Amino acid sequence: MSDLRNILITGSTDGLGHHVAQRLASPEIHLIVHGRNAERGRALVGAIQRAGGTADFHAADFGSLAEVRRLADTLESRYSQLDVLVNNAGVVTLGNVRTETSDGYERHFAINYLAPLLLTRALLPLLGARAPSRVINVVSAGQAAIDFDDIMLEHDYDGFLAYMRSKLAGVMMTFDLAAALAKRNVTVNSLHPGTNMDTTMVRENGVQPTTPVEKGADALMALVDGPEHAATTGCYFDGLREARAHSQAYNAEARRRLHVFGKRLTSGWDH
Hints:
The chain has a single domain (5-265), classed as Rossmann fold (3-Layer(aba) Sandwich). Strands 3-2-1-4-5-6-7-8 form an eight-stranded mixed beta sheet, with helices on both faces. The two termini are 21 Å apart. By secondary structure, the chain is α/β, with parallel strands linked by helices. The chain is globular and about 50 Å long. The protein is built from nine helices and eight strands.
């Protein structure tokens, strides 16, 4: 196994992921850069290398579960271990126009929940190869209860509601994974890095940024690399402080139903 710490940050060609990847650049860390834009990915790899670190870029569109599986297969063939996985890639589109991914799933639910669920489960052998290791799911304080009779919001669609439900699903996934992986020395936490951070995604939705991306990066860095969180698991953080998520996240039956549904849509897992 390599002496380098391997850290994968999904959605790291822009915004919060890009900022944190640059801050992590060092000779002791190999950064696995992910995104859809190869030009931006290569530029970030170059910046990390100039800062004295090492990195490589892997393209994958999380709107396709086949591409998520391909990414996981590629990483398993290339690396012997993964020390940190940051599930940062996400999407938010305001308005009442419902769109689906290539798999036929509502776009927010698929990209913000199903893709990181599948990727994390597929990469468990790498995460457990040299534990302790960490998983951080970037979520949002904007959370709304999941309606299990209409998970994909096929009726009365609202983009922000879809986003909030998908982010709550990410918190629920965090709690389930933390419990399942406790004996394998893999910690799992979720983070709301900041409200309306100054990122392209926020600005493209016509929202005025209110939180500097640097503040969100401080919170994410603490969970990625902070010694104070070496044993912290199964928690939801609002910035640097532990907080309480939406009440449905603590409902065991709701988490069970979501788990069964997510497993079915991602065709099950080997691990």
